[in-house]
Amino acid sequence: MTASLVENLTASSDPAWDRLVSRGGVSTVRTVKVEPAGAGLPVDTPLRVWRKTTTTVDIEGYTNYTETPTLQVELMLTDTDEWRITRILGL
Questions:
Q1: What is the pTM of this model?
Q2: Using the 8-state DSSP alphabet, how is residue 80 labeled?
């Protein structure tokens, strides 16, 4: 992720984290699926792409459950030829 995105995320509350902690939970990522973002978002360019990410997360704690969050992420190519996440939609 870019430094500005990391700063933004660490400064914000995360309801999923709060729920996990309040239930004494431990999360395990079971699957991650990444695919083109589809309609409604800008088209891919050589420097910027959008992807739809779907993750299956198993939670074990006072209450056992599974979550399947889906996020749209923007990735941009840096000057050092690394792809960095610059935006996350769906949080």
A1: 0.78
A2: T
